[in-house]
Amino acid sequence: MTGGSVEDNQAPPGTQAIGRALSVLKLLADADGELPAARIAASLGLSSGTANRVVRALQAGGLVTHNPRTDSFYLGTGTILLGQAAQRGFGLDRALPVLEQLGAETEESVNLTVRDGTESVVMLRVQSTLPLRFEQHTGARFPLYATASGKAILAYSPDAEHYVASLPDELPPLTERTLSTPKQLADQLAQVRRRGYSLDEEENVAGVRCVGAPVLDSDQRAQAALVLQVPTVRMPPARVRELGGLVITAAKEIAQFVPIDRFMSR
Length: 266
Known about the structure:
It is a single chain. The chain has helices at residues 16-30, 37-44, 48-60, 77-89, 92-106, 148-155, 160-166, 182-195, 237-255, and strands spanning 35-36, 64-67, 72-75, 109-116, 119-126, 141-143, 198-201, 208-216, 222-231. The protein has 266 residues and is an alpha+beta fold. The protein folds into two domains: 16-80, Winged helix-like DNA-binding domain superfamily/Winged helix DNA-binding domain (Arc Repressor Mutant, subunit A); 90-263, Beta-Lactamase. Strands 6-5-4-9-8-7 form a six-stranded antiparallel beta sheet. The chain has a three-stranded antiparallel beta sheet with strand order 1-3-2.
């Protein structure tokens, strides 16, 4: 979260402080390292006094830690415990062995992603051990239209037609191979429904091809996807079909114990 003011005089009584605290936590989560209180205040449009009160309250709750040497703040150990509890609640601790098995079998990087509005977000990742690999981190976000995860989810989403219709006539390119029109995306979603897996042909990152499969709920809807990320040099056409079958099988296994309804957009 960057920029913007969280000063809101129209907020119902008692909610403004909560909103400010959440904004600080999101800002620190996105930061690469520590942030001084002055930077937090400026980024969120808060007065210095308000910013200090919020971070000190979060510090008292163990969610933020103060570095006295730099007079800066970063996420505290309390957020680690919350994150671990959330992972258990979402079944990610049970999904991890499936990702590890798929990674060991293919020697490629594996992501479990979820939809957040118009973006695909990496929730769980197993990195390839091969020297040539695509480095990524949990929490990374990408447009749905340019990723195998996004296409896998959209193909089995009830609002897919609305999403496609809301896109501009020319899609913003991320690489030279990003889909350029909503019609191209609609055609690919139909292909995903026919074969069961999606493809990203260097559309999000040059030199990386991805194969994804939806993690479906009991109504055959998707809010999550399992994706293999492979350097293009290791992904000939014959291997695409092989990996497609493997990722479909693994996604079905995850669907048995991950409560997909918890990932549904709020």
